[in-house]
Amino acid sequence: MATSRKTPDSLRSHRWYGTDDMRALSHRGRARQLGYAEADFEGRPVIGIVNTWSDMNTCHGHFRERAEQIRRGVLQAGGFPVELPAMSLGEIFVKPSTMLYRNMLAMEAEELLRSHPIDGAVLMCGCDKTTPALIMAAASMNIPAIVMPAGPMLRGFWRGETLGSGTDIWRYWADWRAGAVDRETLDGVAGGLSRSHGICMTMGTAATMTAAAETLGLALPGSSSIPAADSAHALMAAACGRRIVEMVWQDLVPCRFLTAASFDNAIAVDMALGGSTNAVIHLIAMARRAGVALDLARFDAISRTVPVLADIRPSGRYLMEDFYYAGGLRGLLSRLREALDLTCPNVCGQSLGETLEGAAVFDDAVIRPLADPVSAEGGTAVLFGSLAPNGCVIKKTACDPKFLRHEGRAVVFRDYADLEARIDDPALDVTADSVLVLQNCGPVGAPGMPEWGMLPIPQKLLREGVRDMVRISDARMSGTSYGTCVLHVAPEAHIGGPLALVRDGDAVRLDVEGRRLDLLVDEAELATRRGAWIPRPAPYGRGYGAMYAAHVGQADTGCDFDFLQAGPPTPEPEIH
Fold it and tell me: What does residue 532 show for φ and ψ, rounded to 5 degrees?
């Protein structure tokens, strides 16, 4: 990748430290308060280590240690490291949804980098929303940045069974509600799933998004697959520190990597991994920050041509640790060569094709050959129709195949509280062929579009052996979830989308192969219902929640704030 090298006086931080005026003199003097002499930062790239560690983030428990390893790498390469703590967004504990705060983290990280004397950044991320948020920030700020992925946790075990985070807790929870297992078993499974720091070791949102970051060229080749507990992960963190210093001198900024071609590559990888449906929202938001007009149609076009090769739960049998030993993302990419633009650049200064030299697959059961895929098409399908005029998604590889074409009678829940109150009512008028519909759980309505889309099967049906049904909502679901769950219905019910008009007993038709989702109610009746529809009050009347509701986009546009998408560059701060 041809580039001209920056000089010390062209560094962004030079405006803070290097000029011959009173303010720079004060900055240099104040640095002494922190124990830094001028020799520590004079003429050196200042590297911001954006650390999303927190005691409440299970995925990032090792980040304090990794920050020190990044710091060591920066110093080895002649840079000056400074740590910038940022909102952590631990998926497990943040309520009502980390999605509510993805844009807040994106704003915070962008302004952290803009308002401080930072020349380049290491983005420490992994837990679901942290990766898209920090990449959105980097795209808007557009100074050299490299992603350091958190890495997956170790495999889960309990009484001889290999367990996958999320996926198997859902399965055992359904068995417990059906009366098939006892509480001791349920508690044992929950404990057996949590053996180390790191992201979910199934193909959840975290694993999908860090793989996307690597494919986009923003992370070191092979870095997203390394388990968090492996010593190679610490070595990778130090390598990120060394590499970002050279990236600053080469002025390798995110806009050089975030192109229409690189997003096509990331979508192809998402499909081949059987990745999280959440990736659709996040990739659209990231692309639009970079000025790339990505839409749902592009996802479906690529899904029809790229097979699922990664046999990883919930679409398959294995886990991320197995994926790493089988060759990791580089191994998978090596089998997808014909579906990728191999000229796309990487933070190493090479093309994607060059980074794949020597890549191989060592276990065909985990990363399948093209001639023997898990599925002939990608894991996610995009549907349109009268119930979702702006689109919706389904992870078809995680569905019971008998429901891929299905017509059933709607059983409607007005919101999540209504669902919780009635789902296990023995009097609920529901059969295995019914279509469960959840309203008012989208970006504005929930608020924050929580992962409520894997609606629970009614208890009385679980006891009959039912383990999947057609479920439709304007919510999201965890990438670790499974089942015939239609998600991200747009427009959402809260703003008057057709989902708001569905009533108990309405016929709903799902046709995944035909890419349709339709409400089989005549237009005259829908017009009557639309005229009688009364908007719900906004969930928040003040604060961040009120700002969120006023400015967030719908799922099909990435759920970003309207004022954060691509536009004129924000001016550099005045140094007075």
Answer: -95, -5
